[in-house]
Design goal:
Pathway: Carbohydrate degradation; pentose phosphate pathway; D-ribulose 5-phosphate from D-glucose 6-phosphate (oxidative stage): step 2/3. It contains six helices and eleven strands. By secondary structure, it is an alpha/beta fold. The structure holds ligand LXAUTJHC.
Length: about 250
């Protein structure tokens, strides 16, 4: 069962998200020496860029130099392109870390989609030796008004992927079309998933994802986020949560 927390606005949500990341980092660094974090793009980039640096200053044990960062999905455009998730994080968030900052696994934009996915999966496997399916400490996810998460779109064949950790698509309905993405088996292996949604345009799909009867294989990709043994928490602002009736935590 997912936990659902609702915030008055994206500002309070962003601050709580940043505190959760800092706390998870401090815990992981204390127990295992490193923190593995997967980042999604879109609206998350600005939220994290605005709130995470201050949250980290308040959590000395979080130690960003002990972090391994990966991208939950990436658009295959040059890093300087405005659609590049890695490029956006580099300029908006990573530039704020004092050296040495986190270690980052970059998706290679110079390769074709299939090669880029294969290369990224190899990079990941090297970082998690001995784990058939790597378990990230925390994955930060978004959701689109159509119910997509990462670059997993409704009705797309990638939803059936069972073997690869990373896959690719060349027909994303949301531009740009060429992308690589974590697959459901990798997402659902994580120790914790935080899914963030803000704005009224997402209210109808949030209701469907969280309140429609649970099917074996729901059509909305974000409804297939079901961690095998990890935690799943949704962070919503009031607008995104306005159609929900289920019990949730109302946060100040
Ligand atoms: O295209 C994408 O969209 C989703 C949702 O983005 P948002 O701006 O509506 O929050 C994002 O999570 C994903 O990383 C991105 O490639």
């Amino acid at each position: 069962m997912a936990a659902v927390s609702v915030f008055p606005s994206p500002a309070e949500l962003g601050a709580a998200l940043a505190r959760s990341v800092a706390e998870a980092a401090a815990e992981a660094v204390a127990s295992g020496g490193r923190f593995t974090l997967g980042l999604s793009g879109g609206s998350l980039v600005a939220l994290l860029a605005r709130e995470l640096p201050a949250a980290l200053r308040a959590a000395p044990g979080a130690e960003p130099s002990r972090w391994l960062l990966a991208f939950c999905d990436e658009r295959l455009v040059p890093p300087e392109h405005p659609d590049s998730t890695g490029g956006a994080y580099r300029s908006q968030l990573l530039s704020q870390f004092a050296p040495p900052g986190p270690r980052v696994l970059w998706v290679s934009s110079g390769l074709g989609p299939a090669e880029a996915a294969r290369d990224y999966e190899e990079q990941l496997r090297r970082e998690f030796p001995g784990e058939a399916t790597p378990r990230f400490d925390l994955l930060l996810l978004g959701v689109g008004p159509d119910g997509h998460t990462c670059s997993l779109f409704p009705g797309h064949a990638l939803l059936q992927e069972q073997n690869s950790l990373i896959s690719f698509l060349e027909d994303s309905p949301k531009p740009p079309p060429r992308r690589v993405t974590m697959t459901l088996p990798l997402l659902n292996a994580a120790r914790a998933l935080l899914v963030v949604a803000t704005g009224a345009s997402k209210a109808p799909v949030i209701k469907r994802i969280l309140e429609e009867p649970r099917e074996e294989a729901p059509s909305l990709p974000a409804a297939r986020l079901r961690p095998r043994s990890g935690r799943l928490r949704w962070l919503l602002d009031r607008e995104a949560a306005e159609e929900l009736r289920l019990p949730r935590e109302e946060c100040p």
